[in-house]
Design a protein that fits this description.
The chain is of the alpha/beta class. The chain contains eight helices and ten strands. It has two domains: 3-97 and 187-223, Rossmann fold; 101-182, Dihydrodipicolinate Reductase, domain 2. The protein has a six-stranded parallel β-sheet with strand order 2-1-3-4-5-10, sandwiched between helices. It has a four-stranded mixed β-sheet with strand order 7-6-8-9, covered by helices on one side. It binds NADP nicotinamide-adenine-dinucleotide phosphate.
Length: 224
C-alpha cells in the first residue's frame, strides 16, 4: 500500500518515518500536493495546521483518494459528507489519532451516565500542549466535552514541548474523580493515522463519506 503525507512537520514527520518504503509522496508548504501526484497513492494522511486546510481541501477531494485528516482548528463545511460522497471516496477526520482515545471515549460515556447519582457535581476538562500549538482548546478537549455531554468548563495551557495531556475532573463537596491521558510520543498519532488510512482502503463494506475515528474504530471491531 502506498500512502502520501501532506505536512512534514512534528507529526507528519513521524508518519513518514513509520511508512518507510510505503511512502508515495511527501508534501509541505513549499512542495504542495497536486491531484495527479495524489492519485499515485492508495490513501493520504494530512497533518497541516487548521489554517492550511481550506486551500488543500479541494485538491484532496478532487484526487478521490481516501484521506485521513489530523488537522485541528478548522471548521469543516456542513455539507462535507455530501461533497465526499459525491467524490465517491472516504475520509476520516480525527482530532486525536491515539488508539487509546477509543478506550477513553467509552470511559467518559460511563462516567457521564454514572455521574447522575452524584450530589451537585462540577466537570472540568483541562488540556496542556506545546507552545507552538495554534488552536485552543484542543480538538481532543472538545471531543471529550461532546462525549461527556455535560456542562463542563474547558481550560488550556501551553508549555514547552508537551505532546498532549488531557484531564477530566469531576468534583463534588466530598469527592474528586479524575481521568487522565498523556501522549508520550508523537509517533502515537502517526500509528493511529496509518491504521485509519489502511482501514479506509481495506474495508470494502465501508461506504463513501466522512467518518470520525470512533466510527471507523467501532466499524472495524464489528467487522472482526
Ligand atoms: N489528530 C491528531 O492526532 C493530531 C496529533 C498531533 C497534531 N495534530 C494537528 O496536526 C496539525 C499539524 O501539527 P504539527 O504539530 O505536526 O505541525 P507542524 O510541525 O507545524 O507542521 C505543519 C506542516 O504543515 C505544512 N503545511 C503548512 N501549510 C501547508 C500547505 N498549505 N500545504 C502543504 N503543507 C502545508 C508545513 O509545511 P512547511 O514545513 O513547508 O511550513 C509543515 O510541514 C495541527 O493542526 C495539530 O493540532 C493532530
Amino acid at each position: 500500500m502506498k500512502i502520501s503525507v501532506i505536512g512534514t512537520g512534528k507529526t507528519g514527520g513521524k508518519v513518514i518515518e513509520l511508512l518507510g518504503s510505503n511512502l508515495a509522496h511527501a508534501f509541505d508548504a513549499s512542495n504542495p500536493p497536486t491531484i495527479e501526484k495524489l492519485k499515485e497513492s492508495d490513501a493520504v494522511i494530512i497533518f497541516v495546521p487548521g489554517d492550511a486546510v481550506e486551500e488543500l481541501l479541494p485538491v484532496v477531494l478532487k484526487s478521490g483518494v481516501p484521506a485521513a485528516w489530523g488537522s485541528t482548528g478548522y471548521e469543516w463545511p456542513d455539507n462535507l459528507d455530501k461533497q465526499v460522497k459525491d467524490a465517491h471516496t472516504k475520509w476520516i477526520l480525527a482530532s486525536n489519532f491515539s488508539l487509546g482515545m477509543n478506550i477513553i471515549r467509552n470511559a467518559i460515556q460511563v462516567i457521564s451516565s454514572g455521574a447522575d447519582i452524584l450530589q451537585k457535581p462540577s466537570f472540568e476538562i483541562h488540556e496542556v500542549h506545546h507552545i507552538h500549538k495554534k488552536d485552543a482548546p484542543s480538538g481532543t478537549a472538545l471531543s471529550w466535552k461532546e462525549w461527556l455531554a455535560k456542562d463542563a468548563e474547558v481550560t488550556s495551557a501551553r508549555e514547552g514541548d508537551v505532546n498532549g495531556i488531557h484531564e477530566l475532573t469531576i468534583k463534588t463537596e466530598t469527592e474528586v474523580i479524575q481521568l487522565r491521558h498523556e501522549a508520550l510520543d508523537r509517533s502515537l498519532f502517526a500509528e493511529g493515522a496509518v491504521w485509519a488510512a489502511e482501514q479506509l482502503t481495506k474495508q470494502e463494506n465501508l461506504s463513501s463519506g466522512v467518518y470520525t475515528f470512533a466510527e471507523l474504530f467501532d466499524h472495524t471491531m464489528k467487522a472482526k
